[in-house]
Amino acid sequence: MSSRPTSPETPATRWRWLYLVPPILVPLLVFLPRITGGGFSGDDWSNRSAMMHTSFSGVFEPLLDDPIGHRSLHLPYVYLYDAVFTSHPTLYLLWAVLTAGAFGALVAVLLVRLRVPLWAASSIGTLGAIYPYATMTKIWATAHVGHITGMLALLGILLALRGLQRSGRIARIAHHAGALALFLLSLNLYEIALPIVCAGGLCYLTAIAQRDRPDHRAGVGALLRAYRPGLLRWAADLALVGGWYASLGETDIARGTQQSLQDRVLEILSDGAQNIAGTFVPFLGRDARDGVETIYSGAWFVPSITAVIVTGVIVFAIACVLAPLVAGRTVEPERRRALLRVRNWGLGILAAVVAAYAGWLAIVPADPYYRPVPFDAPVLRVNVIAAFGLTAILVAVIGAVAELLRLLAPRRSPVIAGGFVVLALLGVVLAYNRQNQAEIDLWNTATSEQVAILDAVDEAFDGQDPAPDTNVFLTDSRGWVADGAEVFHTIWSFRGALRATYDDPTLIGVAFRDGATFQCRREGLAPFGLGYEPNAGDPAIAPYGRTVLVSFHQARRWDVRDPASCRRAIREAGLTLLPRDAETPPLGTT
After folding, report:
1. For the whole model, what pTM was predicted?
2. Mean pLDDT calculated for residue range 142-162
3. If you ran DSSP here, which 8-state letter would residue 586 be given?
């Protein structure tokens, strides 16, 4: 019996895996200063405190009660990595960047599996891993869960594609059963990978088309038979998604939404156009992004630079697609093949636009707080999936221009086209890195100021822990160093920092900025101003005997025991005290 000969491993195939190095290594190099100099911010503090004061059984009880529910795996995942990293923000940030790079590498693996050129797949994976963090001043240490859920969804697709190649029926079924399990894990961890799961069928059909090359002139019946394995698997995926979605409660699907679906979709279209434009102007830095935000109208039509860039990209893509048709048979075969490659890049641009919007559509039924605009704090988790569509637009444009350059100079086409691709991609990475470097000082300043505030609180308490159930009112906090660089801006961040620092879940902390006013009422200290709206457990009126005023600049505290000590503390802290007979706004309003 003769065995089938295997071809020797060539240098090209031996080193083919090197395309995975940039998605993993480049984000580490770009964000290393933030990893080493950053700290907790915003939700990081509240999550850290919550995990410190949650028992192992308490985390997993909801999962046992409702295994398939809205983000049922999110809390256990946060609990497990918090138990490993504890109070070391550097480890959290390193893990966040590493998971972004690993997600980018898996995107590249899938693209190569679908026969996208190595350089393009590697570039999309690299830039997609960088983009969400590069558009923000801070890196959310605890928001990398989006990368994890994306990785689970991609692993599911890759496993399903592998199953399509197996010869045995049981092996094929087992592979897709494993893919469905990974999809379910992904959706229950965080729902933003929903578009990846739903689009998996397109990958199955593409793989079948590339392997079997069905005759598309053979009729509908023949095509259905050829694509039947992929269609059946896609149907199973969509059935899983439908079942999962049906298991969610109404509050899980539309948390706090007061907009119609039409308004939400129009908002996504508008914000998405702005985001697409933003991928083409990173080299102009924060000023350019601020400019785009200023131009942004908030309506379905986005004027000026955003409209010009987005319209230009779409027109360029359509022109690329039409180029071979316009040329017809009037050009020699070699040039026509080059035009067909241009057409493929044009189709790639259009597909990337659709992919970016698909990444945002998962958030349409969610709270309006989550928007794809790259200037707002919540966008990281929203852009994690869409980022690869956005950067694919950029890479496809570069590929199309490179092919056009080859047409203009056929004798030196490899040198000219290759040089353009290298310089263009290097310019994009350096531009994102420049944008990132410009904001490192803001990031480090915000981190240092948070540490200084906690040190001032500790000094005010003479190194002792505050008593349980104490309301700590901090004054002189500015909230932001700059847009995106938060200094205990939210109530839950300062409260979480206090609880984590002193290992006491009963502490309540509020950081007030300039402009806040106070009133010493009969029952306690009442704060007003700056949009202070008490959450559950936050004091609308802080009772006497359990309230302490702390000045950041003076590193001093005042125990507020009664109306007299309350008025004295407000005056000595240099705050605005409303008279007893003054009309005061309703509690929790500005």
Report:
1. 0.85
2. 90
3. P
